[in-house]
Amino acid sequence: MKKNSQKGLTKRNKLYLANGVFFGVLIIFLVVFTLFSHGPLSLKRVFIYILIQCAFTLMTLIVYYLSIMADALDRGYKKEEDKESKEDKK
Asked: To pair with 65 at 20 to 30 A between CA atoms, which of 14, 24, 42, 75?
């Protein structure tokens, strides 16, 4: 049985959503801090925000791939467990 008919968000969609929301919040912070500083938008400030976004994206990608690996290991463990339980019944 395949689980392709899952309802809800997939892991990839959650990854995109988290990064998109964080990017939007980061842009809002950049605009707000620029307006309240009464100065022009500096390249240094934009670069810092880009680095923050890259760090967040890297961390979410690590979590995403670790989650995929954990699911694969769990599936393998369950297959082995089912195989052993079938052999025990015989």
From this structure: 24
